[in-house]
Amino acid sequence: xxxxxxxxxxxxxxxxxxxxxxxxxxxxxxxxxxxxxxxxxxxxxxxxxxxxxxxxxxxxxxxxxxxxxxxxxxxxxxxxxxxxxxxxxxxxxxxxxxxxxxxxxxxxxxxxxxxxxxxxxxxxxxxxxxxxxxxxxxxxxxxxxxxxxxxxxxxxxxxxxxxxxxxx
Length: 168
Known about the structure:
The chain is α+β, with helices and mostly antiparallel strands. The protein folds into two domains: about 15-60; about 60-160, PCu(A)C copper chaperone (Immunoglobulin-like, Sandwich), CATH 2.60.40. About 25% of the residues lie in helices and about 40% in strands. It has a six-stranded mixed beta sheet, with no helix packed on it. Strands 3, 4, 7, 9 and 10 form a five-stranded antiparallel beta sheet that branches. β1 (about 60-75) and β2 form a beta hairpin. The termini are far apart.
């Protein structure tokens, strides 16, 4: 095996290249380039993870069902929800479900005006009509569905007439 320098040790690699010193420098710079590529890939992965985490935290929105009532009326049952929206965005209320049955009619009031979109920081009244009559003593679980795909649970209290929300 040839030596790089007269009287020196043989090269550490098995393929003979005529210029030993340049090859040793090339091997080291290839190793540094590979190490830099790995570090860059890890840094990009961490940056992508942090960016999506902060974006998700900045757009967090929820609806808190403060009070829920069910009462008879109009040949069926009405559900009245007193809700407050929180977070940083608005939610569009799409439907209400009670005991696995979807409401045939949903009305959303923010203040006195009918509006389906509830913005963060606002309180709203959601009224939903069901063709099924709910009797006293039934304990049904309901879901408030939004157009964004969120579902918020509630369990209504049975009342005889239409109750008032605290902010009405």
